[in-house]
Amino acid sequence: MAERRWIKDPIAALAVGAERGVVVEDGRIVELVPSGAEPAHPVHAVFDASRHVVTPGLVNTHHHFFQTMTRAHPKAINKSLWPWITSIYPVWTRHVNAENFRLAARLSMTELLMSGCTCASDHHYLFPSGLENAMDIEAEEAEALGLRMTLTRGALDLSGGEDSQAVAPGGAIQDDDVILADCEQVIARYHDRADGAMTRVALAPNAPFDVTKHLMRETAALAEKHDCRLHTHLVETAQEAAFARSTHGMTAADYLEDCGWLTNRTWLAHGIYFDDDEVAKLGRHGVGVCHCPTSNMVLASGLCRTKELEAAGVPVGLGVDGSASNDNSNLMEAVRHALMLGRLKYNAETVTHLDALRWATEGSARCLGRDDIGTIAVGKQADLAFWSLDDLRFSGAGDPIAALVLCGAHAADRVMVKGEWRVENGQPVGVDLAKLRHEHGEAAKAFLEAI
Question: Residues 221-243: pLDDT tens digits?
Answer without folding.
Answer: 999 999 999 999 999 999 999 99
